[in-house]
Amino acid sequence: MDLSKWDTYTDSERSGYLLAIIAATESHIMPPAKYVWMHPRAKLSDAELRSVKSWALAERAAIPKKTGIPSQRSDSRKRSR
Ligand code: HEM
Predict the structure, then answer these.
(1) What's the start-to-end Cα distance of the chain, in Å?
(2) Residue pair 22/60 in contact by the 8 Å Cβ criterion
(3) Helix 11-27 vs helix 46-61: crossing angle, to nearest 10
(4) Which of 3, 5, 13, 80 is the most buried (most CB within 10 A)?
(5) What distance in Å separates the CA atoms of residue 2 and residue 14, rounded to the nearest whole number?
(6) Ligand 1 neighbourhood includes 25 CB (under 6 angstroms)
(7) What is the rounded CA–CA span in Å between residue 81 and residue 68?
């Protein structure tokens, strides 16, 4: 995941990364303890983690859901086989 390339990711890539970010905020695994030891100012408070999590949840909710109905393109690709 490279946040500087966020705009180039597809919806499903973004959705997966957001899920990983949500999990990372819940497990307090990020930033890694060894990193925080060297860079104490990188530590995130519980409030900051909550705010990252609510951003990630909102972003993920805004991604259009897959309907399971094949799109025109994938449909025609199948037929031209
Ligand atoms: C809450 C969001 C996150 C924050 C604030 C965060 C922050 C950080 C920071 C500050 C570092 C240390 C600097 C570095 O190695 O570049 C780091 C390392 C790392 N992060 Fe994250 N990160 C987040 C989410 C994630 C996610 C979602 C993943 C992947 C699923 C991830 C995977 C890693 C890995 C593999 C490392 C290297 C760990 C190591 O050196 O042992 N991080 N993260």
Answers:
(1) 35
(2) yes
(3) 160
(4) 13
(5) 11
(6) yes
(7) 21
* Model pLDDT for residues 34-59, shown as the tens digit of each residue: 999 999 999 999 999 999 999 999 99
CB within 8 A of 42, min separation 6: which ones? 31, 35, 36
Note the helical H segments in 8-71: 11-27, 33-38, 46-61
In the predicted model, what is the mean pLDDT of residues 64-81?
65
DSSP state at residue 38: H
Q: How confident is the model at residue 71 (pLDDT cuts 50, 70, 90)?
A: low
Does ligand 1 come within 6 angstroms of the Cβ of 18? no
Residues in the chain: 81
